[in-house]
UniProtKB/TrEMBL annotation, chain A:
Residue intervals of the Leucine-binding protein domain: 29-366
The keyword Calcium appears for this protein: no
InterPro entries according to UniProt: BCAA_transport, Leu-bd, Peripla_BP_I
Keyword set includes Cell wall biogenesis/degradation: no
Signal peptide positions (record): 1-23
Key words of the record: Signal
Domain of life assignment: Bacteria
Entry protein name: ABC transporter permease
Annotated CDD domains: PBP1_SBP-like
Sequence similarity: Belongs to the leucine-binding protein family.
Automatic annotation (TrEMBL), chain B:
Any one cellular-component term (Gene Ontology): plasma membrane
Transmembrane segments: 12-37, 49-67, 73-92, 104-129, 149-168, 196-220, 226-259, 266-285
Subcellular location: Cell inner membrane
GO term, biological process aspect, one: amino acid transport
Family note: Belongs to the binding-protein-dependent transport system permease family. LivHM subfamily.
Keywords: Amino-acid transport, Cell membrane, Membrane, Transmembrane, Transmembrane helix, Transport
Membrane topology qualifier: Multi-pass membrane protein
Gene Ontology MF term list: transmembrane transporter activity
Organism: Marinobacter lutaoensis
The name this protein goes by in its record: Branched-chain amino acid ABC transporter permease
TrEMBL record, chain C:
Record protein name field: ABC transporter ATP-binding protein
Keyword hit for ATP-binding: yes
UniProt entry keywords in alphabetical sequence: Amino-acid transport, ATP-binding, Nucleotide-binding, Transport
Chain segments annotated as coiled-coil in the UniProt record: none
A UniProt-annotated Pfam family: ABC_tran
Length: 404, 295, 240
């Protein structure tokens, strides 16, 4: 097993390094590569503004860590695993990039993981949803920050079932992410005593949802759940509102909804929708202060992914500072040992499988009457404790966990 | 309840109606493509971008100047039409008569450029556009709930399609267009200002796309990439109907909307592929398309 | 105004005209003059450059050099539709009947460029067949009817100089005879006609002058009254 071997050698190497307590930052530069969809479907939830968030963390360090200069490069992966792979390979093999950040589309993150592992470099996944990244696809070379499909299903589905939504109809985006979300939701619904009476897999992307909404309406289910993302979700919500889904007594549950999506929909169309989020800008003074700083640079309020990119970069740089090293395993080990306490998460911790677990929040979109400003969009209904939110390690298929 | 292949008749009727509504969009868009292909002999890959511009213009005009839906219904296509004529005059005209691949690449490039600039300015999450008040709500037809706006879309889209067909098939201006489609050089030899006709035709074709864009603004997510998704489908519709056939583009558009709608009912995962399947079959049986003239 | 008095008026003057289709050099310096009211033919073998000369006048060939004056106006820089508006009516060799238009639409398609054109009634009187079939698709007509239509079409526009390319080609003798009558009638109306013709026996009695074209140049000019004297020269050029 190459992974085991790598684990052992890196463990030895890091032991030597820490033992020597020797500052060892190659080329005396920390180079961070920001890879994200800069122009396509996922642009707004991470994209160029995620790069701005990353640069804010670098700024906080004054552009230097232990005297080593921090350099940031970025690239558009265009949601293509091929483009992403070749970019990251070039970064790691020719350009001495130490950390790959961003990482949005799940397929991109999974493809990049292999290359990170081959080169024994570190990646922090902030945008992807698939929980398989730290399950089937776990590696000692990445960390999955912010959220994944497991708490999305857990938070929203269990809350809606408990409120009396017993029968479910799921509209699923017909690709890996949608299927994962659909199975997670089905599990949660059934565990809570509900029933999934129909699922419908729609092509990705689907510009017109009227036909599917009509079928969902005809199903007579209590809850119409959207296991899709981005424009598919906003289109479906718009159409549901046009066809009077909620007026006919059905509840709409969007499983993955970002702040930017809700902003685009507007509270008129999105009001009352419940969703699970890893962070919201208007939770406390700390989040508001950082969001103000972010807004000054970008003109918009940050999504949970933006905040996660900032936080994870900050934690990474702190680990580099503390260990004096840019070795992937040394830094990751230090990050795993150090609880995360910043404006993004309280008592967040990184597990052996690379999953950063932290409290998640069940939120509801405000009504037009409640919403006092353009970005005043959520009210937080409930905090979902970290241990309840994420897949327990006992269910994990990740070899890193069993080898612990 | 009457069932057809396990689907209640009421549900099926609803899906057919939805299919016709979507088909009306396809018809509007493929009509513009067909008109442009007829006279300019170019495959306008910027058509999706023009549709998007129509929708974006509607939202931006409202946000910036408070222009309401009814005014936008005329103003947005007009602005996009003028933009199209400028594109034709300064860019397309320079490669007239060259191999198809040049115009294809040029219009595709224009589409990417327009899309890229707007993505940078407005992002991709979508712009919000409120449904005009008078269209809020809908009517219960017994077998389905039909939002008023969808009823309006189907009516006005088919009206514009019919109007365009009438203009091209029954009027003097349409005769110029049809004749120009066959032999533009001879038309010019008769004293017709063909370069102007070409500009106007391109402008008119993209106006139809922009008009569809305005109709789409209240119901679909308005984003800079909205046109790229629909473009390929519309191309398939034009190929099925037969390149350059006006009536064919309209009928095929509606027909494909219905076929897509039925697929969405019986086997949803295939609904984005079904039109291309039809295209393959049609091309094998009748390479000139359903309504195309035999070469 | 009688046409005799205008015989000195130069309706068309071409000097040193070269024309190219891509790399191939078709016309090598054409010089000719046509006066108002004249009927002039361009004779020559296939590929000699006669049709190209007509197209060059219409600015319908690739590249041209030299000079083409219509009504004393230089037209080398003019777009085809401007040339048509100087009163030039062009009837192409392939007739150019539009299949997506019916007969009447074909007939009324070319815009009126000058006053004095024939009215629709006059045209239908001259070509009764066209009236009977006015709602048929243009290309459903017989070859002869299509040729009538192609001619009639430019008579409506008021053009006073007609460029006619191979109008008798492939037509039955009775139709050719009818076309001959039409040309005589047009000539009597004072129209200027440049006729590219393969059928010398059709052209000979109608024309005032003949130009012989070979290898893209005018090699001979023959007046009607010189015809019999120069018959052998002409035969050698035409390869009869």
């Amino acid at each position: 097993m190459t992974m085991m071997k790598k684990l052992l050698t890196s463990a030895v190497a890091s032991a030597l390094m820490v033992g020597g307590a020797q500052a060892d930052i190659s080329d005396n530069t920390i180079k961070i590569g920001y890879l994200a969809d800069m122009s396509g479907t996922y642009r707004d939830l991470a994209g160029p503004n995620g790069l701005a968030a990353l640069n804010m963390a670098v700024e906080d360090f004054g552009g230097k860590v232990n005297g080593a200069k921090i350099e940031v490069v970025s690239a558009d992966d265009r949601n293509s695993p091929d483009v992403a792979s070749s970019t990251v390979r070039r970064w790691l093999e020719n350009d001495d990039v130490d950390l790959v950040a961003g990482l949005v589309a799940s397929s991109v993150s999974i493809a990049v993981s292999d290359i990170l592992e081959e080169n024994d470099k570190l990646g922090i996944v902030s945008g992807s949803a698939a929980s398989s990244i730290t399950n089937e696809h776990c590696t000692p070379n990445h960390i999955h920050y912010v959220y994944d499909t497991y708490p999305l299903a857990n938070g929203t589905a269990s809350a809606v079932v408990k409120e009396g939504g017993k029968s479910w109809f799921i509209l699923t985006a017909d690709y890996a992410f949608g299927h994962a979300l659909e199975s997670d939701v089905t599990r949660v619904v059934e565990a809570n005593g509900g029933e999934v009476i129909g699922t419908l897999r729609h092509p990705f992307p689907t510009p017109d949802f009227s036909s599917f909404i009509l079928q969902a309406q005809a199903s007579g289910a209590d809850v119409v759940a959207l296991a899709n993302a981005g424009a598919d979700t906003t289109n479906a919500i718009n159409t549901a509102s046009e066809f009077g889904i909620t007026q006919s007594g059905q509840t709409l549950a969007a499983l993955l909804l970002f702040l930017t999506d809700v902003h685009a929909l507007g509270v008129e169309a999105a009001q009352g929708i419940q969703l699970t989020t890893g962070w919201y800008w208007d939770m406390n003074d700390e989040t508001r202060a950082w969001s103000d700083r972010f807004m000054e640079k970008t003109g918009v309020r940050p999504t949970m992914v933006h905040a996660g990119i900032y936080s994870s970069t900050l934690q990474y740089l702190k680990a580099v500072e503390a260990t004096g090293s840019d070795d992937a395993q040394t830094v990751r080990k230090h990050m795993m040992e150090t609880p995360i306490n910043d404006m993004f998460a309280k008592n967040g911790r990184i597990r052996a499988d690379g999953r950063m677990v932290h409290d998640m929040y069940l939120a509801e979109v405000k009504t037009p009457a409640e919403s006092k400003s353009e970005w005043d969009l959520y009210k937080i209904l409930r905090t979902i404790p970290a241990d309840e939110a994420y897949r327990p390690l006992s269910e994990s298929k990740c070899p890193l966990v069993s080898s612990k | 309840m009457t069932m057809i292949f396990g689907v209640p008749l009421a549900v099926l009727s609803g899906q057919l109606l939805i299919g016709v509504i979507n088909g009306a969009f396809y018809a509007l868009l493929s009509l513009g493509l067909a008109v442009i292909f007829g006279l300019l002999k170019i495959i306008n890959f910027a058509h999706g971008a023009m549709y998007m511009l129509g929708a974006m213009a509607t939202v931006i005009l409202f946000d910036a100047l408070g222009v309401n839906y009814w005014v936008a219904l005329f103003l947005a296509p007009l602005l996009v039409g003028v933009f199209g004529m400028l594109v034709e005059y300064f860019l397309l005209r320079r490669i007239a008569g060259q191999d198809h691949i040049y115009s294809l690449l040029l219009t595709f490039g224009i589409a990417l450029l327009v899309q890229g600039v707007l993505t940078n300015l407005y992002g991709v999450s979508g712009l919000r556009y409120a449904m005009p008040d008078m269209f809020k709500g809908g009517i219960n037809l017994g077998f389905m709930f039909l939002p008023y706006y969808r009823a309006w879309v189907i009516g006005v889209a088919l009206l514009v399609c019919f109007g365009t067909w009438f203009m091209i098939e029954k009027t003097k201006l349409g005769a110029y267009l049809r004749a120009g489609t066959e032999d533009a050089q001879l038309m010019q030899g008769f004293g017709v200002n063909v370069p102007l006709l070409v500009s106007l035709t391109y402008g008119f074709g993209v106006m139809l796309a922009a008009f569809a864009g305005v109709l789409a603004a209240p119901i679909y997510s308005v984003t800079p990439v909205m046109g790229s998704h629909i473009l390929i489908v519309v191309f398939a519709v034009v190929v099925i109907g037969g390149m350059g056939s006006i009536g064919g583009a309209i009928i095929t558009g509606v027909l494909m909307g219905v076929i897509e709608g039925l697929t969405k009912t019986f086997y949803p995962p295939a609904s984005s592929a079904v039109i291309f399947l039809v295209m393959v079959v049609v091309l094998m049986v009748r390479p000139t398309g359903l309504f195309g003239k035999e070469a | 105004m009688t046409h005799a008095s205008n015989r000195e008026y130069e309706q068309l003057r071409i000097s040193g005209l070269h024309a190219f289709y891509g790399e191939s050099h078709i016309l090598h310096g054409i010089d000719l003059v046509v006066h108002r009211g004249e009927l002039v033919t361009l004779l020559g073998r296939n590929g000699a450059g006669r049709s190209t000369t007509l197209k060059a006048i219409m600015n319908m060939v690739g590249r041209r050099t030299g000079s083409i004056m219509v009504n004393g106006e230089e037209t080398m820089a003019c777009a085809p539709h401007h040339i048509a508006r100087l009163g030039v009516g062009y009837c192409p060799e392939h007739r150019g009947i539009f299949s997506s238009l019916n007969v009447q639409e074909n007939l009324t398609l070319p815009p009126v460029v000058r006053s004095g054109g024939m009215s629709l009634e006059e045209i239908y009187t001259m070509f009764p067949n066209l009236y009977e079939r006015r709602f048929s698709q243009g290309t459903k007509l017989s070859g002869g009817e299509q040729q009538m239509l192609a001619m009639a079409r430019i008579l409506r526009t008021g053009a006073n100089m007609l460029l006619l390319d191979e109008i008798t080609e492939g037509l039955a003798p009775v139709i050719v005879e009818k076309l001959g009558d039409v040309l005589v009638a047009l000539k009597n109306k004072g129209l200027t006609i440049v006729l590219v013709e393969q059928n010398f026996h059709f052209a000979a009695p109608l024309a005032d002058r003949h130009y012989v074209v070979e290898h893209g140049q005018i090699v001979e000019e023959i007046r009607a009254d010189e015809l019999s004297a120069k018959q052998s020269v002409l035969d050698s050029y035409l390869g009869v």
